[in-house]
């Protein structure tokens, strides 16, 4: 009996690995079926990424069927021109969103409000000309924002207020000719800023932003070339290399127009969140004591390195002038003392010379009388 049962036991043991492999194949198939069932037909999905790019889409597919836990959504290289307000609802796990190379021209307010974990957003190469100041509300975790190659002519105040964690920003290839410094002051962690390929007008409207750029560079940030197109005498020059003294006339213009050095278009600059800000609509004239501290003592950066260099150079020049003045005074004193000594000696010699002349005259008289 034992000999007859041994082979059957051996066969059962040899059959266990086959059953385990079959179960593994079935589980993988079940996972793939689940992913396919939860992925839009226009996209290719895996556990973390949904790739819907390059499909010539004119509308966004149903994103509610994306697999749970999707971190990356790629919608680049399509023909999207508009986006519904709630298109990104229930996608709180999304970390990367690529909408580049489309035809987007108008994005609704608070479009990304539910993407509170988004860290990378690309809107590169679209047809955006105006951005709603509430567009990026809720993106507190955003670290990288690409707005290059659009038609933006301005960046509205308040657009970047909640992006204090942003480290990389590109505004290259737009139609920007000036930027307001208060718009960028909330970006306290920014390390890289791209502003090239814009028609910059290097006049008084860009002066304060130039100061902010210098402050960003001083604390270790990187800003690419900002070449001036106007005025003609500055065309082709990088505004970072234009001396601050060339903007001194702006202060005179502000005084003539009755505006302070810190005045901006559209009223006072915005304060940080949680601070009441004066409204530009129906503004009431207030005294300085009534203004909030963030407006009254608003940060006004200057080129610290240039200021230090100016102080050092001025000190060296003043030192050299002082040394030259001391040397000149010493030389004058020495020269005066030598001349006084010379005059005294000359006066002492004059009587002796007079006696010698008298003796010579008497000798000549004696010689003439003898003759």
TrEMBL record:
Any coiled-coil regions, as ranges: none
Record keywords: Cell membrane, Disulfide bond, Ion channel, Ion transport, Leucine-rich repeat, Membrane, Repeat, Signal, Transmembrane, Transmembrane helix, Transport
Segments of this protein annotated with the region Disordered: 352-371
Transmembrane region(s): 307-340
GO biological process per UniProt: potassium ion transmembrane transport
Intracellular or extracellular location(s): Cell membrane
Membrane topology (UniProt): Single-pass membrane protein
Positions of the LRRCT domain: 198-251
One GO CC term on file: plasma membrane
Encoding gene, per UniProt annotation: LOC113048097
Secretion signal, residue range per the UniProt entry: 1-38
Domain of life: Eukaryota
Protein name: Leucine-rich repeat and transmembrane domain-containing protein 2-like isoform X2
UniProt source species: Carassius auratus (Goldfish)
Main location: membrane
